[in-house]
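Backbone geometry:
***
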Amino acid sequence: MRRGDRPLEDGDYARLLGFRVELRAFLRHSEEVAHAAGLTPALHQLLLAIRGGGPPPGPTVGQVAAALGVRHHTAVELAQRAEQLGLVRRVRDARDHRQVRLRLTARGARGLERLSRLHLPALGQLATRLADVVAGEAGHAAAARSPSGRTARPAA
């Protein structure tokens, strides 16, 4: 053991578990909201990566792939699917015609805004719960949280 390292305690493991439980609950909520809006979670993430990827002319397919943590060809296929659904336009870069930039259509922007309005309160709640977990105040509560993000009821 290096100098200054301390043995891990039960509370350390409880915080790590709590962190993972809270993240998974948020992601599950996000997936449910996307499905309820008629989108796959991957399409929702694509729209968010495009809108959050900076000002016009829009991100390149490679930049979106990096933001999503997927391979370039996966981002291309996802963009093609979104384009077929009328959510995204692929546009050749004005300066470098080798690059394709992605832009939301009006339909894609409206859909993303609706989804984002549903996500922002959940994000604020997640931030609060994660702060509690990191402070060691919510490890047990997070572990009791059900997959839907609601607190699980104890078995009778």
